[in-house]
Design a protein that fits this description.
There is one protein chain. By secondary structure, the protein is α/β, with parallel strands linked by helices. Helix content is about 35%, strand content about 20%. It has eight helices and ten strands. An eight-stranded mixed beta sheet has the order 1-2-4-3-7-10-8-9, sandwiched between helices. β1 and β2 form a beta hairpin. α5 packs antiparallel against α7.
């Protein structure tokens, strides 16, 4: 493993991850898989699920020989870039101040954009933007957002005006454009509702690769079901609710990644009383079922189909 340093957050915290591969220091010729978590801070099960996948890839938590062999094959073929928490400022705020905080922590403006004659806020100051509405896209700011800076779905004043989204997008753009790396999978982990979400996020229109996405998703949710019996639903991201400016749509549109997906982890939508506060007893099983999902996902991506067809 190699340390991956994305940069510093708005409040100066490190955004760190790992680069994993067999013989990692000589693996820059391999195609890249990207995984991230923690973009919405209150979704506490996301970072430990991503960290569990890291431990599984490093051979530390899975005892099943078939699973270990499949993970070793992924490590041989790919270079995996994994960042468990891309919004550390918000995460710390959920630990210390407001458990249900969803946004970043950068000053955003005045509630309802109303100021007094003296320039102060008429109601109150607002902090943070929704980091999963802040990614540049032709549809940015049109769906599932609010112009009120205090709203949970305020997308920011403009795309990438949040430090963490700017840092992550800059890293990925450099990887693709400067380093000429082939990024073949983008996955971001959220909670909750037990969903596997495919493009697009902003419209229910079919993606040109819709049949491929559906097949991949069907395999993923089947793998999850087989592990611990949990039912995840495979659907278009906009089927949850249309939203523009999310990271998966940016990766699909700007980076050209056909296999760009979002997981909504445990619990199910019906368990809304539990919601973001998943019992700690379920963290490990969530990790395990998503290791199985990750294997099924990587096995199904377009890169493998194209490689096998040639």
């Amino acid at each position: 493993a190699k340390l991956l340093d994305i940069g510093k957050s708005y409040e100066g915290r490190d955004i760190l991850g790992l680069i994993l591969s067999e013989n990692v220091h000589n693996s820059d010729n391999k195609p890249v898989l990207w995984l991230d978590g923690g973009i919405h801070p209150r979704e506490w099960v996301s970072p430990p699920t991503v960290m569990f996948i890291i431990d599984a890839l490093l051979g530390k938590v899975e005892n099943d020989t078939t699973i270990r062999s499949q993970l070793e094959d992924i490590m041989k073929e790919f270079q995996i870039h994994i960042v468990p928490n891309i919004n550390p400022d918000g995460y710390v705020y959920t630990r210390n101040v407001d458990r249900m905080w969803r946004k970043t922590r950068k000053y955003a403006g005045c509630e309802k954009n109303l100021k007094t004659l003296w320039g102060s806020c008429f109601y109150k100051l607002c902090y943070g933007s929704d980091p999963n509405r802040n990614w540049d896209h032709p549809e940015w700011g049109k769906q599932g957002v609010s112009t009120n800076p205090c709203s949970e779905v305020y997308p920011g004043g403009e795309p990438f005006d949040q430090t963490n989204t700017k840092m992550v997008s800059t890293y990925l753009l450099k990887l693709k454009n400067n380093d000429k790396r082939n990024i073949v999978l983008f996955v971001t982990y959220h909670s909750y509702s037990q969903l596997f979400l495919t493009p697009y996020g902003y419209t229910l229109d079919d993606h040109p690769e819709y049949a491929h996405h559906k097949a991949v998703g069907d395999a993923v949710v089947a793998a999850i079901k087989q592990r611990h019996g949990k039912t995840y639903i495979n659907q278009k991201s906009a089927g949850l609710y249309p939203a523009s400016g999310d990271s998966a749509d940016w990766a699909e549109h700007t980076l050209g990644i056909v296999d760009s997906y979002t997981f909504e982890l445990r619990p199910s939508a019906a368990e809304w009383r539990v919601g973001f506060e998943l019992p700690k007893e379920q963290i490990r099983e969530t990790g395990e079922e998503n290791v199985s999902a990750f294997i099924a996902l990587v096995n199904g991506i377009k890169y493998h189909q194209d490689k096998n067809s040639t």
